[in-house]
User: Fold this.
Amino acid sequence: MNVQTDQQPNNPEVEAAAEQAVDLGGDIKSAVRDITMQALSKGKLDTDQIRGVVSAVVAGVTRGADKAEDSSRGSVRDALSGLDEALASSVQASRLAIEEAVAQVGSLGSNEFKRALDDLGALEDLFLNTVKEVSASTESRLKQTLTDFVDHAKISGTAVGKAAAESVSLLSKQLGSLLLEAAGEGADVALRVGSQLSEVAAGLLAGISDSLKARSEKGKDNSET
Assistant:
């Protein structure tokens, strides 16, 4: 069944990879985590990129699970957990990028640092709202599974929400007076700093992704011996 949303960008490769991960079975959670992190590490790790990748992954996972049998609901839940883990890693990458930038930029771009923290704080809502939008726009038999995941996550929390809260708290203390003085920079400076942050974060996430993937493959090899 074709699963789309009105606002879903063109991410056919990501969607196809997520669908295949469900088709193949096995460790769906790790597979979807790796697919998501690899997709997010390309280009800029900004809000639009994250929303587009999340939407494509959820659509692909749902379509793949639609073709499965009784285990399909479990497959979707595992995939969404993997997606959650990937987003938590993206928070780590963004935090590291901000920490690196602060040491180099000084007082310039303080507005953009504040905006970066605001974006981190809103990442859990972005994740859950995107899943909800896919659920609302699909005719998949797993529509309720997506809705149930969102409802449960709002109560119990998510990995990305926890990571974001911890990072925002830590960075707020580190940035200190820089955030309090956030005013007066021109739009061109803010855009430049924001672009640099998202590019550095994407590069850092690629490294985190490679490390997690290597760890998963090593664990798989050890279990087979």
Observations:
- The chain has ten helices and no strands.
